[in-house]
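ok so i was messing around last nite and threw this chain in just to see what happens. nothing serious, just curious
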Amino acid sequence: MSAQTEQKPVLWQIDISHYSEKVRWALEYKGVDHARRSPLPGTHIPIALFLTRGAQPTLPVLQVDGRTIGDSTEIIAALESIHPEPPLYPVDAEERARAIELEDWFDENLGPHARLLSFYELIQEPEIFAEVAAESVPGPLGKAKPVVGAYARAFTSIRFGANSDEAAQRAREAIVAAFDKLEAELERGKGEFLVGESLSVADVTAASLFYPVVVPPEGPLDPTLPRPPAMERFRQSLSDRRGFKWVEETFRRHRHR
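result:
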């Protein structure tokens, strides 16, 4: 075995990112010992491009087994190959295809909207955004809250268009539609899991990407941090839904570190 393959896997991530949370969950569920690198948001774009030789401009990126893999879906697929136990892909071919289909659906139809709405509401509350941003930057930068907060507002406005009222409204509608989809799948499955009788990539993806809305205690965002009042009202309007409670329970039962 070469020295390269003996090295501990390295996850390049953004601490509060729900796509990074999806990969962290998979790594920890499989018991994969790994190191983490959390660059300053914004600087992560050239870093990701450098690591993936121009293939991927965003994090997470995983360096494992001599490979550098971008995109959360591709990372989990690689982990299934390298560390197959415990599996996140169902053994049954039909269930496996369904789990991957649901992973893709939530990646595309929930993930971008949950991120945008969270940033939109934070932009409206500069002091709160400064508190949250200070928790997600490396080292002593977290002490410069006004500077970090101003940077975060500018970056998320430019990078995601998160200062748009129209985009925020579309995001709210998409999140509600994603809860509809989640609950329809739970009804179809008749059990605790979206597909089959054990945790799968579908569950990990849906729960991770809903976390910015649900804010479960086991998630990466400190639940004691202040939250924008409008975001909290939206959260409370959903809190009695079966899907909301499912996200809370899935984190509580299966998000073990």
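not much to say yet. Residues 3-82 form a domain with the Glutaredoxin fold (CATH 3.40.30.10).
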